[in-house]
Amino acid sequence: MDEKTREKTIADHIQKDAFANHLGARVEIVKPGHSRVFLTVNENMTNFHGTTHGGVIFAVGDMAFAAACNSHGRVAVALNVSIAYLKPSYAGDRLMAEAKEVYNGRRTSLYDISIYNEATGDLIARSQDQAYRMNQWIVPEQ
């Protein structure tokens, strides 16, 4: 399998995320180990303060993390996530979560995730996420 076909197969697999699709998130892989997710917040995603629910912010960051850590074609699952919520966002805001690989080892990998309000550039939240790399493949290495 050539590299373009391999990358497309991995990207197609990641696009099958039912929860991301349910929320209307758009997931893109920039390159192996680096992804972005875009999500427009609607009224159903807010809490009783009228701000974006923390679970939605966590979810968009988690989607970026999942795409980045699985983008090598090896199945990876969350081992640990630590998130800091920094600023509120609101219905109508378009969030952009960007995951960047910091470390990619034999069994674990580490990612920095930043969630921004795309229009203002405000940093909404940051997380550091660790993945466990399983001995299973979406697409085997060549």
**What is the element string, with H for helices and E for strands?**
HHEEHEEEE
Number of domains: 1
> So what's the CATH class?
Alpha Beta
In percent terms, what proportion of residues is strand?
Answer: 35-45%
CATH topology: Thiol Ester Dehydrase, Chain A
Shape field: globular
User: What ranges have pLDDT less than 50 throughout 5 or more consecutive residues?
Assistant: none
Radius of gyration: 15 Å
CATH superfamily: Hotdog Thioesterase
What oligomeric assembly is this protein in? single chain
- Helix % is 10-25%
Order of strands across the main sheet:
1-2-4-5-6-3
Q: What is the total tally of β strands?
A: 6
End-to-end gap: 8 Å
Biggest sheet features: 6 strands, antiparallel
Structural class assignment: alpha+beta
Walk me through this protein's architecture:
It is built from three helices and six strands. By secondary structure, it is an alpha+beta fold. The protein has one domain: Roll (Thiol Ester Dehydrase, Chain A), CATH 3.10.129. The protein has a six-stranded antiparallel β-sheet. Strand 1 and strand 2 form a beta hairpin.
